[in-house]
Design a protein that fits this description.
ThiF_NAD_FAD-bd; six-stranded mixed sheet; alpha/beta; Rossmann fold; 257 residues; ThiF/MoeB/HesA; 8 helices; 13% strand; 6 strands; Ubiquitin-activating_enz
Length: 257
């Protein structure tokens, strides 16, 4: 067998037990939507073939390596044990626990982020849960109505993965927050990566300014109706969120309608 083909076969076979949670979430959402189309008869299901190839993320191993024989998580079969250990020991700050925030928390809990000795997840959201939230914010149930979103999200994450260390806050992030839980000490030592799940530009710009000032990486995401956006900000390697200008916001969010 050709050496290159042998390498590809080896990579394929060793990643069969893998679980790549973000991709599972995407394909699960697509499949669910197609099932709803077929059952309801309102729209025609997509009749196409989709292949997503991202073998560049695979951890290259020598043939005599046994790194993955001792793995404890499905993600290690793809990214390698060392990368997974770094993920488990990351200090993640999830800002907002609405529709996107719930999805982010579900994914990082399933990926075992925040389970390491020095890792944790901090989540903040000053809003409380309303009945209308239940249709799109997957971590919440009827019994959670009236609770703070961050507290209910913390409880849901612990049900999914009790090993995740989560700390919730109900504080607003903004210029007036000079003290409290998100002081200078928090920004310097309490967080490695910020995951934005915000619904307004003012808060996004504030978080972007903090990331630039403290040289922290940030992933910003947002939705508007059927549209979505995501931006990865890496210090000294990419532009910041504030480097470009978003179009004017609609008076009433489509998701609310």
């Amino acid at each position: 067998m050709d050496k290159e083909w042998k390498r590809h076969c080896h990579n394929f076979l060793r990643t069969c037990p893998a679980k790549f949670v973000p991709l599972q979430a995407i394909f699960g959402a697509i499949a669910s939507q197609e099932c709803l189309k077929a059952v309801s008869g309102l729209y025609n299901p997509i009749q196409q073939f989709l292949l997503y190839d991202c073998d560049e993320v695979l951890d290259e191993l020598n043939e005599d390596s046994n790194t993955h024989e001792k793995t404890t998580t499905g993600l290690s079969y793809i990214l390698g044990s060392e990368t997974v250990r770094r993920l488990q020991n990351q200090k993640l700050f999830v800002v907002g626990s609405g529709a996107i925030g719930c999805e982010i928390l579900k994914n990082i809990a399933a990926m075992e982020a925040g389970t390491g000795k020095s890792g944790n997840i901090v989540v903040t959201d000053m809003d409380t849960i309303e009945k209308s939230n239940l249709s799109r914010q997957l971590l919440f149930r009827d019994s959670d109505i009236g609770k703070f979103k961050s507290k209910a999200a913390e409880e849901a994450v612990h049900r999914m993965n009790p090993s995740v260390k989560v700390k919730c806050h109900t504080s607003k992030v903004g210029d007036e927050e000079d003290s409290g839980p998100f002081d200078s000490k928090f920004w310097s030592n309490g967080v490695d990566v910020i995951l934005n799940a915000l619904d307004n530009m003012e808060a996004r710009l504030f978080m972007d300014g903090q990331c630039v000032a403290n040289k922290k990486s940030m992933i910003d995401a947002g939705t508007l109706g059927s549209k979505g956006n995501v931006q990865v900000v890496v210090p000294h390697q990419s532009e910041s969120y504030g480097s470009s200008v978003d179009p004017p916001e609609a008076a009433i969010p489509v998701c609310t309608l």
